[in-house]
Specification:
alpha+beta; OB fold (Dihydrolipoamide Acetyltransferase, E2P); 2 helices; single chain; four-stranded antiparallel sheet; 148 residues; 10 strands; 2 domains
Amino acid sequence: MDLRKVKKLIELAEESDLAEIEVSGSDESVRIVRNRTRVESQPDLMQSISAKEGVNQTPQAPALDLRSKSQLDSVNSPMAGTFYAAPSPDEAPFVEIGQEIVRGDVVCIIESMKMMHEIKSPRSGKIVRVCVNNGEPVGTADPLFEIR
């Protein structure tokens, strides 16, 4: 396989935020696996650094993570593509508003680069909102569903 094609696949994986991509041809095969680590900001650390640097800040209440199963959580698109609510146009949608789902249930399909990717629920809950219409384009991290 041409090195330019491999570089293009790497760029494509980065742009689409894919963790893994595999392409096979008649006599060639390439598999690219990205090691993604997220660095989350730490508000307390940032405040202490700013205080040491002499930056004026208004006092803030400490941040509390009150997330519970009763609060809304969103299922976001892991890649850019086209949103499909059902496996085919003549079939029922994977999920509907009010439906109880279990972690790992397929909630929709995102078509990206002529490939269909099943999107699974990150947790159990109840679908309270569908954020995208069938056939609409979505970007990476766009909300698809809200679950409670």
